[in-house]
Amino acid sequence: MPNTRSARKRVRQAERNRLRNQMYKSRIKTAIRRLEEALAGGDPQAIDAALRRALSAIDRAAVRGAIHPNTAARKKSRLMRRLKAAS
Asked: Are 83 and 39 in contact (CB under 8 A)?
Protein backbone atom coordinates (compact mmCIF):
# COMPACT_ATOMS: atom_id res chain seq x y z
CA MET A 1 0.00 0.00 0.00
CA PRO A 2 1.55 3.33 -1.02
CA ASN A 3 2.16 5.77 1.78
CA THR A 4 2.88 9.06 0.02
CA ARG A 5 0.85 11.10 -2.46
CA SER A 6 3.47 10.62 -5.16
CA ALA A 7 3.49 6.85 -4.60
CA ARG A 8 -0.32 6.74 -4.90
CA LYS A 9 -0.07 8.70 -8.13
CA ARG A 10 2.57 6.31 -9.50
CA VAL A 11 0.24 3.37 -8.74
CA ARG A 12 -2.53 5.05 -10.73
CA GLN A 13 -0.17 5.82 -13.61
CA ALA A 14 1.25 2.30 -13.63
CA GLU A 15 -2.23 0.78 -13.87
CA ARG A 16 -3.23 3.15 -16.68
CA ASN A 17 -0.03 2.37 -18.59
CA ARG A 18 -0.46 -1.37 -18.01
CA LEU A 19 -3.93 -1.29 -19.53
CA ARG A 20 -2.72 0.78 -22.50
CA ASN A 21 0.21 -1.58 -23.13
CA GLN A 22 -2.14 -4.55 -22.85
CA MET A 23 -4.36 -2.99 -25.53
CA TYR A 24 -1.46 -2.54 -27.95
CA LYS A 25 -0.21 -6.10 -27.37
CA SER A 26 -3.71 -7.47 -27.89
CA ARG A 27 -3.98 -5.58 -31.19
CA ILE A 28 -0.72 -7.15 -32.34
CA LYS A 29 -1.90 -10.66 -31.49
CA THR A 30 -5.22 -10.12 -33.26
CA ALA A 31 -3.54 -8.70 -36.37
CA ILE A 32 -1.09 -11.62 -36.52
CA ARG A 33 -3.92 -14.13 -36.09
CA ARG A 34 -5.89 -12.48 -38.92
CA LEU A 35 -2.80 -12.57 -41.13
CA GLU A 36 -2.41 -16.30 -40.46
CA GLU A 37 -6.08 -16.80 -41.35
CA ALA A 38 -5.57 -14.84 -44.57
CA LEU A 39 -2.51 -16.95 -45.42
CA ALA A 40 -4.59 -20.08 -44.90
CA GLY A 41 -7.30 -18.65 -47.14
CA GLY A 42 -4.87 -17.82 -49.92
CA ASP A 43 -6.46 -14.57 -51.18
CA PRO A 44 -3.55 -12.26 -52.15
CA GLN A 45 -5.49 -9.05 -51.49
CA ALA A 46 -6.58 -10.23 -48.04
CA ILE A 47 -3.02 -11.29 -47.25
CA ASP A 48 -1.63 -7.91 -48.32
CA ALA A 49 -4.19 -5.98 -46.25
CA ALA A 50 -3.69 -8.20 -43.19
CA LEU A 51 0.10 -7.89 -43.50
CA ARG A 52 -0.06 -4.09 -43.63
CA ARG A 53 -2.36 -4.01 -40.57
CA ALA A 54 -0.09 -6.38 -38.62
CA LEU A 55 3.10 -4.46 -39.43
CA SER A 56 1.40 -1.19 -38.55
CA ALA A 57 0.18 -2.53 -35.21
CA ILE A 58 3.65 -3.83 -34.36
CA ASP A 59 5.33 -0.55 -35.31
CA ARG A 60 2.78 1.49 -33.38
CA ALA A 61 3.28 -0.58 -30.22
CA ALA A 62 7.06 -0.21 -30.50
CA VAL A 63 6.87 3.57 -30.98
CA ARG A 64 4.57 3.90 -27.97
CA GLY A 65 6.89 1.80 -25.81
CA ALA A 66 4.47 -1.08 -25.27
CA ILE A 67 7.04 -3.49 -26.72
CA HIS A 68 10.79 -3.22 -27.18
CA PRO A 69 11.96 -2.17 -30.67
CA ASN A 70 13.95 -5.40 -31.03
CA THR A 71 10.82 -7.39 -30.20
CA ALA A 72 8.96 -5.50 -32.93
CA ALA A 73 11.75 -6.21 -35.43
CA ARG A 74 11.75 -9.91 -34.50
CA LYS A 75 7.97 -10.21 -34.87
CA LYS A 76 8.03 -8.45 -38.25
CA SER A 77 10.91 -10.62 -39.46
CA ARG A 78 9.08 -13.80 -38.48
CA LEU A 79 5.91 -12.62 -40.22
CA MET A 80 7.80 -11.90 -43.41
CA ARG A 81 9.50 -15.31 -43.30
CA ARG A 82 6.10 -16.98 -42.82
CA LEU A 83 4.70 -14.97 -45.74
CA LYS A 84 7.60 -15.89 -47.98
CA ALA A 85 7.31 -19.58 -47.07
CA ALA A 86 3.59 -19.54 -47.85
CA SER A 87 4.05 -17.94 -51.28
From this structure: yes
Show Cβ contacts of residue 27 under 8 Å, excluding neighbours closer than 6 positions.
57, 60, 61
Q: What is the pTM of this model?
A: 0.87
pLDDT tens, N- to C-terminus, the chain (87 residues): 899 999 999 999 999 999 999 999 999 999 999 999 999 998 999 999 999 999 999 999 999 999 999 999 999 999 999 999 988
Fold classification of 5-86 (topology level)? Methane Monooxygenase Hydroxylase; Chain G, domain 1 (1.20.58)
Q: What is the C-alpha to C-alpha distance for residues 20 and 11, in angstroms, rounded to an integer?
A: 14
CA separation for the pair 52, 49 (Å, rounded): 5
Amino acid at 43: D
What whole-number distance in Å separates Cα of residue 25 and Cα of residue 81?
21
